[in-house]
Design brief:
Chain lengths: 523, 336
């Protein structure tokens, strides 16, 4: 009796699900993807509308050439340096017997809690005349190397030491083992991390504006500030988008098609640590130096301004208002981003077919657009065709969803994948509608992933300046906006409390990031 | 299933309509200002105005030309009621598109003719003077430029700074254009491009002079006084050189206020401009920390400032300042 019920019920449930959740979930996912691709579509539309002649005139001029040189040099110098530093640090903290490895690993992540423009603020507090490419590279290195350290360290943890042992047993020196066995296995995380750092370099505004280093993004913001939403800004955005695509293409080529996985039974054992011998203590110089640049400089400058400013800079009414507005905007943005990521996350886990993967990749592509381009597009679209949405919370939320959706997607995917599909089927067999079955099982059990996704999205929103400034509803003032306004008027002391608050609220989310990367590695 | 769909649609419609509301609901007795003036100054004004009249002010902060172009694009649908700038060219741009509501005659009468455009479509609310802020440890009075035009000469190569992307500097170039014509302006800009160092923002340029990075900077006067009133750490090495003698470098720039035709709160907006140019609004300029000049009839400026009447500024028609031509000339000179 029992068996006949389940025999009938499960196929029935399966049939209902096929026509049910997956089709309308797909429809929703596609709709969201179309919204996400809006900025890209806008840039193409703007180029066509401008006409080839004007477009050419606006693009082929000396200023654009200078910006291109700056931007390309910045990316080409900073990304390899970041990769080098990240690999060295990850190796030391994961695979050697350097004293205090756990602590150093923490210190390698913590710079992420400091917004990039606060890094810049800290450096010019110390060296006021700092400017140009060299300064841009140095500060970017301090601000962004953790984006590479995280995946590389995780990859080190997952490496199967058996391969290295075999290579060594075949007579390779330790250095050759590293070069020929370890490095190739790190390639995926190196490429992914480098792409992330590269895209951040292209999109960053505050860091470079503060040290008078012009990139496409700073030039677009400058154009926006003097012409609002003019053709010249649109054409600069086009070049910037092309740069992003070039970076993505480069990553695809460098990543290659080879994959590394352990075949056969059993699991990889935990890799042993390499004894550094008398270099054990000297090795700490590298993480210590990194911590000085990426943590001590911000800490020192902030403390100095806080002391210099005294009690007068804690204007609690203004700070409180900015804080509450920031938290509300983070909450709305976080919830909406997770909700928007839910359909596609469910689809790629439960129905990993071609069309769903294409939809998923649309989100990644859309989020690689710099904030300034997303904001420019949304301003232009809302002011022309969707006027009721102009300068509303809805528009800025959409911008955040576009920019940060992958953060929520990654977290959700992992936790949905851990929920057995049988639970959905069981719920359906007990008579729940497909939507309810989904709600009662997978969605509920994926809550930790949703929470993590929300936290990571909020971290992004908390430190977002460019798009927020362009899209914020009238009267809004976030911590980042207030910080920027005050430091632009060289009121560095009054800006310090806002920077401190951003760091304080970012720290727990950075901790979460670290925790998550360890959990994925299973150690 | 049906229930959940209805529920979902209902909930999303509700959420959507909630989002579609601007952050601050529009109360009947409230105005929205597009503010390109210094945030601190407009906030002081807004708070004092609310105290006097009960009218709530919502401020959106930005820069002169950004808002001018934004207002033009928004056209009929602009959420702004009042536009406040640091300089006149942005006002001239909006006025050129016919988007300003004429200012009430009583309000116009509160400000002398030289501080407002002849057509009365907007009004001067404050003023600022061009200065050459110089490093006292490097320059003495006899080595200072006698005219702003000297700064384009080869002997000033690598010695001075400016913030060309700002509306402030563009207004100065606009005055030069109006006073001396396109040819002189063009060659001056070429000389400037060869000689100057670009900074982002007047206060940053001033700070660089104070730190010894360059010898002088062409900025407005109040950055110096504002810093002196605080700690002086970015201005203690500086001297201010006023060009005077109706030199283009003695240009006094008028900060404007205007009411948009599209405003749905015209009465309150008129009340704001009347208050702003009247005694209470101008008093904020005298007693506050902005150090901008008051322009109201009989209104006194801050005691620390060189009196406006002593500056011997050239006569410039604010409504004729042409920013489009200025940016074209600056682009041609390779500054942008």
């Amino acid at each position: 009796m029992t068996s006949s019920v389940s025999d009938n019920a499960i196929p029935m449930a399966r049939r209902r699900r096929r026509s049910g959740p997956s089709s309308w979930t797909f429809a929703i996912a596609v709709t969201i993807a179309l919204f996400a691709l809006l900025p890209l579509g806008f840039v193409i539309w703007a180029t066509v509308a401008t006409g080839p002649e004007t477009a050419f005139k606006l693009i082929a001029r000396p200023r654009v050439g200078a910006l291109l040189v700056n931007t390309v040099a910045l990316v080409l110098i900073t990304v390899p340096l970041c990769a080098l530093l990240a690999v060295a640090l990850a190796f030391l903290t994961e695979r050697t017997d350097m004293p205090g490895r756990r602590l150093w690993a923490w210190l390698c992540i913590t710079p992420l809690a400091v917004p990039a423009f606060v890094h810049s603020y800290a450096w010019i507090g110390l060296w006021p005349g700092l400017n140009g490419l060299g300064a841009g590279v140095a500060i970017s290195l301090a601000a962004y190397f953790p984006f590479l350290y995280l995946p590389v360290a995780a990859a080190f943890r997952l490496l199967d030491p058996a391969l290295e042992d075999q290579a060594a047993s075949l007579g390779l020196s330790p250095l050759a083992v590293f070069r020929r066995v370890v490095l190739p296995q790190l390639r995926l995380s190196l490429c992914g991390g480098s792409l992330l750092v590269g895209l951040h370099l292209l999109a960053e505004y505050g860091l470079y504006a503060m040290i008078r280093f012009d990139t496409f993004t700073t030039a677009i913001v400058e154009q926006f500030q003097s012409t609002y939403n003019g053709v010249a800004a649109h054409m600069l955005a086009l070049v910037l988008v092309v740069c992003c695509f070039a970076l993505i293409g480069l990553e695809v080529v460098l990543r290659g098609r080879s994959r590394y996985a352990r075949l056969g039974s059993g699991v990889a054992r935990v890799a042993g640590v390499m004894p550094l011998g008398r270099w054990r203590h000297a090795a700490m110089a590298l993480p210590a130096l990194t911590a000085v640049f990426a943590l001590c400089i911000p800490a020192y400058t902030l403390t100095r301004w806080l002391v210099a400013g005294g009690a007068a800079i804690w204007r609690m009414d203004e700070i409180g208002l900015a804080l509450s507005q920031t938290l509300i905007i983070c909450l709305i943005g976080g919830v909406c981003t997770v909700l928007a990521a839910l359909p596609v996350a469910w689809l790629v886990v439960r129905r990993p077919d071609r069309k769903n993967r294409i939809v998923e990749s649309c989100y990644y592509l859309a989020s690689s657009m710099p904030g300034v381009v997303v904001a420019l597009a949304l301003v232009a679209v809302t002011v022309r065709v969707a006027l009721p949405l102009y300068q509303t919370v809805a528009t800025i939320t959409l911008a955040y969803v576009i920019m940060f959706l992958p953060r929520a997607l990654v977290s959700l995917r992992t936790s949905i994948a851990q929920v057995p599909v049988e639970l959905e089927q069981a719920a359906a067999s007990l008579g729940r509608s497909p939507a309810r079955a989904l709600m009662a099982t997978t969605v509920r059990l994926a809550a930790p992933g949703a929470a993590a996704g929300m936290a990571l999205t909020s971290l992004g929103i908390l430190n977002e300046l460019t798009a927020t400034q362009m899209l914020a509803p009238n009267g809004t003032r976030t911590l980042a906006m207030a910080f920027w306004a005050l430091s632009s008027e060289i009121d560095y002391a009054a800006a310090a409390p806002y920077a401190v608050l951003m760091v304080v609220f970012s720290l727990p989310m950075t901790w979460l990031l670290h925790h998550q990367s360890r959990k994925i590695a299973g150690r | 299933m049906k229930n959940s769909v209805v529920l979902a649609v209902g909930a999303s419609a509700l959420a959507f309509s909630a989002f579609a509301l601007p952050a601050h609901a529009q109360v009947a007795d409230s105005i929205t200002i597009y503010n390109a003036q210094h945030e601190g100054l407009t906030k002081e004004w807004a708070e004092a105005f609310k105290e006097d009249t009960g009218i709530v002010v919502t401020i959106r902060n930005g820069s002169d030309m950004e808002f001018a172009n934004q207002i033009v694009q928004e056209g009929e649908n602009s959420p702004a009621d009042v536009f406040l700038t640091e300089n006149s060219p942005a006002m001239a741009l909006v006025d050129g598109k016919g988007l300003f509501e004429p200012v009430a005659a009583d309000t116009l009468a509160q400000v002398p003719e030289q501080f407002r455009p002849a057509n009365g479509h907007w009004i001067g609310v404050a003023a600022r003077s061009t200065v050459f802020a110089y490093d006292k440890t490097k320059l003495t009075a006899d080595k200072l430029p006698t005219s702003m035009l000297d700064l384009a000469k080869p002997e000033w190569k690598g010695r001075w700074a400016a913030s060309p992307s700002g509306a402030d500097f563009q207004a100065i170039v606009g005055a030069l254009l109006q006073l001396k014509g396109a040819d002189v302006t063009e060659s001056w800009l070429q000389g400037m491009q060869a000689n100057y160092t670009a900074y982002k923002g007047n206060s940053i340029a001033m700070k660089a002079v104070n730190a010894g990075e360059v010898e002088g900077a062409l900025i407005y006067h109040y950055y110096y006084f504002g810093d002196q009133a605080k700690t002086g750490e970015n201005s203690n090495n500086l001297g201010l050189h006023y060009f005077k003698g109706q030199d283009p470098g003695a240009f006094v720039s008028i900060s404007g206020g205007g009411i948009l035709k599209s405003s749905k709160h015209k009465e309150q907006a008129q009340a704001f401009l009347e208050w702003l140019t009247g005694e209470s609004g101008q008093r904020v300029l005298r007693d506050g920390t902005s150090f901008e000049y008051a322009v109201g009839k009989g209104a006194a400026s801050n005691k620390a400032l060189v009196p406006l009447a002593d500056l011997d500024a050239p006569k410039v028609e604010p409504s004729m300042l042409n920013n489009a031509q200025v940016t074209d000339l600056m682009t041609e000179a390779g500054i942008f």
